[in-house]
């Protein structure tokens, strides 16, 4: 009987222990709930410079991230060569120097220049004689005094000399020799090459006395006034790219954003499965140089959504919150859903219960700090 009594007491104790649930920590939860609201004094409100507002309808689009490099159009990049070759007599160009259109950039000399001018003068004198002879043979032919063969020969000589004269004239113009000065008897032993554009020297490949040929590159000059941005877009993003879309780009050596617009879209896919797009900068900047790399965001698929300034939204416990004004100086931390961010505004989805209430749009992190300090206390 004693054993049965002891067992009975043990069984009752076990039943009592199992039926007793652990006490819920209602104190902790109630504290947490109460700490969702911040109450400020008038002095605190004024010192924090709190601003209130509501969600606004704004056009926000998705952004396609791309990379690229600044470049110049072909007409703004010039390679300078010597049309007939020669020896470098003088030049003052250095890499990075600016030049003006028409400014002489190099002087060359060669005996062929002298020979070319002599041939021109001799041919010019011969042409005058052959022209008179051709006209004389025509007059004689009309009077049946000469033979047809004499007329044809004089005609052939005249037009051959005329063709040679035209070729020599083109060559002299090619090397910038003034024909009027030459015909006045001034034969030059050197020529100068002017710059065809205004810009900056990027390459200097010559030195004094160097012999150059028509295929040698003497200088390269770039006009940086109309730089454009060449970006590479992956083929999967190509359907979202349209001419005229806004582009926000950041150069590799800067932190500020520059604005551009999509101007042309390439029609060829590279081996890396990308397509080149051509963007025009909205503000020209002569300090920029070709070859600078950049990161850019192409804005697309713009929609009208509810949005708040970025600073109105706080990140807390892996979620997004705003402070809602329930009554003057009383602000409640309320969780929201966010979407895309653009130009300092973020798309938001607000609970229906707070849609018509004021929202703190400035000093939100100060309110969060007060909330955390209160919780710690």
Please provide a written account of the structure:
The protein has 377 residues and is of the alpha+beta class. The chain folds into 3 domains: 90 residues, no CATH class; 87 residues, Beta Barrel (Elongation Factor Tu (Ef-tu), domain 3), CATH 2.40.30.170; 145 residues, RNA polymerase II/Efflux pump adaptor protein, barrel-sandwich hybrid domain (OB fold (Dihydrolipoamide Acetyltransferase, E2P)), CATH 2.40.50.100. Helix content is 29%, strand content 37%. The protein is built from 7 helices and 21 strands. The strands form 4 sheets. It has a 6-stranded antiparallel β-barrel. The chain has a 4-stranded antiparallel β-sheet with strand order 4-11-9-6, with no helix packed on it. It has a 4-stranded antiparallel β-sheet with strand order 8-7-5-10. A hairpin with a 6-residue loop joins strand 13 and strand 14. It is elongated and about 120 Å long. About 5% of the residues have low confidence.
Secondary structure blueprint with pairings:
Layout: H1 2-19, H2 26-34, E1 37-39, H3 42-48, E2 51-53, E3 56-71, E4 77-80, E5 86-90, E6 98-99, E7 104-109, H4 111-142, H5 148-174, H6 179-183, E8 190-194, E9 199-204, E10 211-212, E11 219-222, E12 228-234, E13 246-251, E14 258-269, E15 274-281, E16 293-309, E17 314-316, E18 319-327, E19 330-342, E20 345-349, E21 359-362, H7 364-376
Antiparallel strand pairs: 1-19, 2-21, 3-12, 3-16, 4-11, 5-7, 5-10, 6-9, 7-8, 9-11, 12-15, 13-14, 13-16, 14-15, 16-20, 17-18, 18-19, 19-20
Helix pairs in contact: 4-5
């Amino acid at each position: 009987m004693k054993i049965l009594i002891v067992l009975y007491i043990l069984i009752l104790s076990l039943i009592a222990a199992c039926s007793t649930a652990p006490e819920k920590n209602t104190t902790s939860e109630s504290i947490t709930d109460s700490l969702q609201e911040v109450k400020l004094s008038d002095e605190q409100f004024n010192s924090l410079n709190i601003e209130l507002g509501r969600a606004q309808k704004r056009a926000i689009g998705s952004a396609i991230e791309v990379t690229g490099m600044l470049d110049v159009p072909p007409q703004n990049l010039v390679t300078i060569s010597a049309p007939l070759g020669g020896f470098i007599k003088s030049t003052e160009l250095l890499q990075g120097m600016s030049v003006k259109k028409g400014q002489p950039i190099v002087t060359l000399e060669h005996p062929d220049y002298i020979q070319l001018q002599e041939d021109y003068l001799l041919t010019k004198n011969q042409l005058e004689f052959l022209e008179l002879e051709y006209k004389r043979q025509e007059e004689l032919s009309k009077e049946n005094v000469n033979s047809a063969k004499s007329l044809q020969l004089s005609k052939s000589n005249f037009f051959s000399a005329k063709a040679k004269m035209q070729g020599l004239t083109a060559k002299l113009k090619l090397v910038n020799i003034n024909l009027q000065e030459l015909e006045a008897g001034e034969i030059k032993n050197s020529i100068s090459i002017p710059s065809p554009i205004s810009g900056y020297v990027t390459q200097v490949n010559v030195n004094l006395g160097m012999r150059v040929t028509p295929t040698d590159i003497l200088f390269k000059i770039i006009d940086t006034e109309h730089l454009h941005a060449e970006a590479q877009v992956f083929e999967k993003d190509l359907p979202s790219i349209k001419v005229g879309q806004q582009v926000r780009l950041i150069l590799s050596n800067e932190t500020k954003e520059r604005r551009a617009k999509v101007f042309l879209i390439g029609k060829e896919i590279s081996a890396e499965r990308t397509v080149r797009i051509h963007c025009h900068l909205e503000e020209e900047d002569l300090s920029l140089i070709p070859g600078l790399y950049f990161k850019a965001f192409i804005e697309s698929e713009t929609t009208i959504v509810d949005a708040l300034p970025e600073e109105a939204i706080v990140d807390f416990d892996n979620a997004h919150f705003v402070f809602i004004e329930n009554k003057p100086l009383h602000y409640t931390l309320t969780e929201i859903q966010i979407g895309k961010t653009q130009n300092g505004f973020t798309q938001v989805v607000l609970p229906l219960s707070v849609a018509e209430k004021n929202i703190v749009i400035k000093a939100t992190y100060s309110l969060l700090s007060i909330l955390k300090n209160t919780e710690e206390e």
